[in-house]
Amino acid sequence: MHLNPPSSRRLAPTRLAARRLPTQGISARRLCAFSVVVPLLCLFLVQPSMAQSESAFPLEEMTIRQLQAAMADGTFTSHRITALYLDRIAELDGRLGSVLEVNPDALAIAEALDAERRESGPRGPLHGIPILLKDNIATQDDMETTAGSLALVGARPKDDSFVAQQLRQAGAVLLGKANLSEWANFRSTNSSSGWSGRGRQTNNPYALDRNPCGSSSGSGASVSANFAAAALGTETNGSIVCPSSANGLVGVKPTVGLVSRRGIIPIADAFDTAGPMTRTVHDAALVLNALVGVDAGDQATAASAGHIADDYTQDLRADGLKGARIGVARTFFGFDARVDALMEEAIEVMRRQGAEIIDPVEVPSYGDFEGSSYQVMLYEFKHGLEAWLADLGEASDLETMDDLIAWNTAHADRSMPYFGQEIILAAAEKGGLDSAEYRDALAKARRIARQEGIDKTMDSHRLDAIIGPTGGPAWTTDLVNGDHFGGSSSTPAAVAGYPNVTVPAGFIQGLPVGISFFGRAWSEMTLLRLAYAFEQATGHRQAPRLLDRLEQP
Fold first, then answer.
1. Catalytic, out of 98, 193, 239, 489
2. Mean pLDDT for the chain overall
3. Whole-model pTM over 0.85
4. Catalytic residue (one of 215, 304, 415, 489)
5. CATH number of this structure's domain 124-538, picked from the four choices 3.90.1300.10, 2.160.20.10, 3.30.2290.10, 3.90.1150.10
6. Where are the beta strands (DSSP E) in 260-375?
């Protein structure tokens, strides 16, 4: 959830550890033996070659709308779609490292949804659609919820998270749990994006030696590799949009309060949110439809009443940029000339599509907050984590943050082989949320991000959205030299609690780069419309090939 620990050096392991996938995962050979798929398809599925497996995969790049059409006309069932995704995970994820575990009940759930479709029709657009969840999102089933930490293995939550409930009610198949940066990348100042004690290192599907970015790394890598139709990620600052950018996806970081955080292992109540990560804008809007809602279990959602759209797909149109006023936040340019060139191409596309470009506009950057947002995170992480542990009750031996620190120290060979827990130690030193330091930091962060930042800029220029580079091309995962993070534009929207939508903007040496559209609170409909129009005009999404490393030109 947190993209940028306050350090210039963050280390990453260079090898992929063994994956822990349940034995309930179904192989291609078992599928064929039980006649789940047609014989011709079996000839392709049982081939050992990764290239052959990828080229033969019948669901590659299929959208949610296409999957629904295929189920409606009988080409596929949810059971078959789920089995094919499970088989693909079993065949390929040993090298990608994006999925911690698959749901042992996924096929049974899909079969029941097929029966319901035959009897009464689909519940809606997500009926029978397999979706992965980040492993900090609670499910009350046979799957773990650990935030990637070995300390929480076996400590099962009592209930589904709100978003898991919403997806189940919409008819989605909860396919499994995706790996993440441990504790949503809020453990160490030297952490590796995509590494957790439980899952080890997630790799980038465009080049396996590259980093997937952000804490929602497994969600991004898995959906990009066509392991599921969609996934949920979470963000505090950058951890939906950055892995979406680095993995060639669309990512939606909603306004804080639009989607309930109940049942999600927290960092900061002021900034945390969950959101969809998909291969298209339309799919992201469909998933967002299922996630939103006022929830008595999360007070922040009360503010969303009256701001929730009936359907976030209803204004998606190819001419959606026409007449729009787009501000260019050049504050976030300059960290990579190649990224700047892609942004200039994107701006020109928007002009040709009829947008009015206001260039430049001023918005605050990470340094403008002078550490205030980080102080908020430290205080709220301690408060939120200890509340989470208390709610686990007897399911966990941990009761306090000090208990977690002690557990990590006692099991350092497994939990801290590459980096420590400096952020957790700093959070443990903080007091309660009645502290003057906390209250002042929160007020300052919100004032700079909102009143003096996004709101002021958008009002003064009458903007529909602000754009900036989501990030740069994925860096090499390297234990010796650490993460080579370049830059991003995620901080203003993250600290303000405002929405941010990233969409693919092109490639640099075979690695995807995204562009972000962010703006006022509750402006998801507008941002999705603009992002959709840009997506339709450019079509930059390309499926990855799981190369060991970048091809030489």
1. 239
2. 91
3. yes
4. 215
5. 3.90.1300.10
6. 273-278, 325-328, 356-358
